[in-house]
Amino acid sequence: MAEFLPYGRQSVVAADVEAVAEVLRGDWLTTGPAVTRFEADLAGWTGGVPAVAVTSGTAALHVAYAAAGVGPGDEVVCSPMTFVATAATAAMHGATVVFADVSPETANVLPDAVKAAVTARTKVVAAVDFAGHPADLGTLGELAHEAGALLLEDAAHSIGGSWQGRPVGSWADLTTFSFFPTKNLTTAEGGAVCAADPELLGRAQEFRNHGLVRDRSRQRFPDEGGWHQEVHAFGLNYRLPDVLCALGSSQLSRLSSFVARRAELHARYRAGLSDLEGVALPVTLPGAEPAWHLFALRVLGGRRRELYEFLRERGIGVQVNYIPVYWHPVFADLGYRRGMCPGAERFYAEELSLPLWPDLSDADVDRVIGEVRAFFGHA
């Protein structure tokens, strides 16, 4: 049987290994200079917006909502077409999650749906850059701010992309990234929060480090001694260690090539499948420069599961991203019901992610294209 092709995987080279080994040979395994360097390197991709490195994309969301002051009585308007963490971390802060429907073409949240969902209790509007295609960040930011809320951009899929000429990370009040191995760069596990506002950034920095306050000018008992630190608001240990930050900085040095190669592979899929009846291909809206994380094929006519099983049997590890968040039993048990976001449910019923990562060869893509065409009876 031919080699199994997962839908995504990391790209690690000798320079990445050496960057990690250099930290292991040094004095700082965590809370050291590699963290500061990685955060500075990330800011080079966000238009200079400062970054706070954390242990995962989920941690980044939890930290961002904490920085925004989300709590009981607040509402967070959220896309349902995302991994559960985008909504779950808001709920864990005690907020009520309000789902706004998405475009059946891009799976990004619709501004009109957000406008209908915001209320006086809305604290955050959480947009997701599905598959690496940026959401309508300018319009969403205006809607959030008119409601007295903040815009959070879940950019787990889209680092290296841009919207209307501005990089992902420079639009929203808070932007979160994920560096899981299948993402556009990796720190094994890891994530980051970006915020231009110093107050939001400071809250994020403190929450990822137990809420510790070391600035004497802010302490209630500053004369206790040089060792003294205080907790004014609860936080958690979400610190990303130097070992993984070193890997991240090394990966960032190749992010341009990662984004370019993903775009080449994306275009190759499009060319090979463009004449195929029974599928719909991803779209790119005017003003978007996606950093493609997924090739999200839409399988029409109710045949998505059949094609999924056909390809899996042939060693092609296609995936489905994602079930609508409110379908998860944890949300169903809170009273959310199927049918509330028909655009998301339609997209979910058709979506199938084909393999896409930088080291995927042209021949690998042609193999996938060939099998998809064979399924539909085309040579």
From TrEMBL:
Keywords: Pyridoxal phosphate. The active site is at K183 (proton acceptor). It comes from the Bacteria. The keyword Heme does not apply. SUPFAM superfamilies: PLP-dependent transferases. It holds the Pfam family DegT_DnrJ_EryC1. One of its GO terms (biological process) is polysaccharide biosynthetic process. Gene3D superfamilies: Aspartate Aminotransferase, domain 1, Type I PLP-dependent aspartate aminotransferase-like (Major domain). Its cofactor is pyridoxal 5'-phosphate. The modification N6-(pyridoxal phosphate)lysine is found at K183. GO terms for molecular function: pyridoxal phosphate binding; transaminase activity. Belongs to the DegT/DnrJ/EryC1 family. This is UDP-4-amino-4, 6-dideoxy-N-acetyl-beta-L-altrosamine transaminase. It comes from Actinophytocola xanthii.
